[in-house]
Automatic annotation (TrEMBL):
It comes from the Bacteria. SMART domains: REC (SM00448). Keywords: Phosphoprotein, Two-component regulatory system. Pfam families: Response_reg. The lineage of its organism: Bacteria, Pseudomonadati, Bacteroidota, Cytophagia, Cytophagales. This is Response regulator receiver protein. GO terms for biological process: phosphorelay signal transduction system. The keyword Phosphoprotein applies. InterPro entries: CheY-like_superfamily (IPR011006), Sig_transdc_resp-reg_receiver (IPR001789). Residues 6-124 form the Response regulatory domain. PROSITE patterns: RESPONSE_REGULATORY. It comes from Hymenobacter roseosalivarius DSM 11622. The modification 4-aspartylphosphate is found at D55.
Length: 125
């Protein structure tokens, strides 16, 4: 079997985090989590991550700020990682703003878990 891909879930809600984690683990992904923007950046710098599920409304540094910081990384593996925004406030942002920040794609909350699996597979296989 191919080495499992690592997904970082940036989410401050334990309920959403645990549900998302279980669903992706069933798909054989290795899951890491971060509850705030500083944790996201630390994890990105310390290990290989294949995709980030980024809640836009996380504490310390929000998802947009985190995404911009990741995109500025001098490490091309980090700077080019797919980032999928997850937000209950998608109406507060245009796709243009997401793209400007460097977000690859987005999923609205409440999460449709079939769509989640489909989008993750689209970017990381």
């Amino acid at each position: 079997m191919a080495e499992s891909k690592t997904i970082l879930i940036a989410e401050d809600s334990s309920v959403i985090l645990n549900l998302t984690k279980k669903i992706l683990e069933l798909q054989k992904y290795h899951i890491l989590s971060a509850k705030n923007g500083n944790e996201v950046i630390k994890q990105m710098e310390s290990q290989a991550i294949d995709c980030v599920l980024m809640d836009i409304n996380i504490p310390v540094k929000d998802g947009m700020e985190c995404t911009r910081e990741i995109r500025r990384s001098s490490n091309p593996q980090v700077a080019q990682v797919p980032i999928i925004a997850i937000t209950g406030n998608a109406n507060n942002y245009s796709m243009e703003q997401f793209r400007e920040a460097g977000i690859t794609d987005y999923l609205p909350k409440p999460l449709d878990f079939d769509a989640l699996v489909r989008v993750v597979k689209q970017y990381v296989g």
